[in-house]
Amino acid sequence: MHSRIIGLTGPTGAGKSTWSAAFRTLGCAVIDCDKLARKVVEDPAVQKALQMEFGGDILKNGVLDRRLLASRAFADKQSVQRLNAVTHPAILEQITHEITEYEQRGIGIIIIDAPQLFEGGLEKMCTLVAAVLAPQQIRLKRIMQRDKISEEEAWLRMASQYGDDYFKEHADCILDGSLLPQEVPQHAQKQLQAWLGESI
After folding, report:
1. What is the dotted CATH code of the domain comprising 4-197?
2. Was 62 annotated as part of a binding site?
3. What ranges do the domains of the chain cover?
4. N or C: which end of the chain has fewer CB within 10 A?
5. Which amino acid positions bind ATP, per UniProt (predicted)?
């Protein structure tokens, strides 16, 4: 069986996780690329490549200092590209494996939850792409609370990613990331019905 694969993307803090959780509750399979990224950076070969790019001190007593890595990897767009060049091939391999497993289980819709969907070329695997967008001030507050970082660090992370215009131009549909968490499930259900009603 060939599943419909929907790429779910958007800038950091936009509310992607809330939407993907709602889709999971509705019976979709969700491949969380952030989780896969955290998994692949535990691979010694990946860690060695990251040290070459971002400094040997990101590994301390065999343990990856994720905050130090993030401060360097999200410093600017070029640094993000260097991070992606190391991690994306390993993440892509994991995604392909999970898609095969879900298809074998007969799951009709698979969501690839990927903040770096376009950077990794993952949109080529998708039937359609949905982007979750929210105003900058909402995103800023969420990022600071979620990652326990300063306003300056949060702005740096936001600046290292594509802006809303890019997502509006490249996504097939836009999902509202400014909704309250309790409002998302009913909107997700309507969106899913719309997708299922279309020959996507």
Report:
1. 3.40.50.300
2. no
3. 4-197
4. N
5. 13-18
Answer yes or no: is 7 a known binding residue.
no
**pLDDT tens-digit map of 180-194:** 999 999 999 999 999
Cβ–Cβ under 8 Å, residues 5 and 100:
no
- Kind and range of the H or E run holding 155: helix 151-159
Cα 153 to Cα 25, 44, 68, 193, distances in angstroms: 33, 28, 12, 38
Residue with tokens 């994306």: 88
Q: What is the pLDDT of residue 168?
A: 97
The pTM for the full model equals 0.83
12 assigned to a ligand binding site: no
**Crossing angle of the two packed helices 77-104 and 44-54, in degrees rounded to 10:** 160
121 annotated as belonging to a binding site for a ligand: no
**pLDDT greater than 70 at residue 17:** yes
CB 109 within 8 Å of CB 28: yes
With beta carbons less than 8 A apart as the criterion, state whether 33 and 95 touch: yes
Q: Which residue has the tokens 């998994």?
A: 39
The string of pLDDT tens digits covering residues 38-63 is: 999 999 999 999 999 999 999 998 89
What backbone phi and psi angles, to 5 degrees, belong to 47? -60, -40
CA dihedral of residues 173, 174, 175, 176 (deg, nearest 10): -160
* Structure token digits, residue 130: 């949905």
**71 labeled part of a ligand binding site:** no
CA–CA separation, 146 and 123 (whole Å): 27
Predicted pLDDT at 76: 86
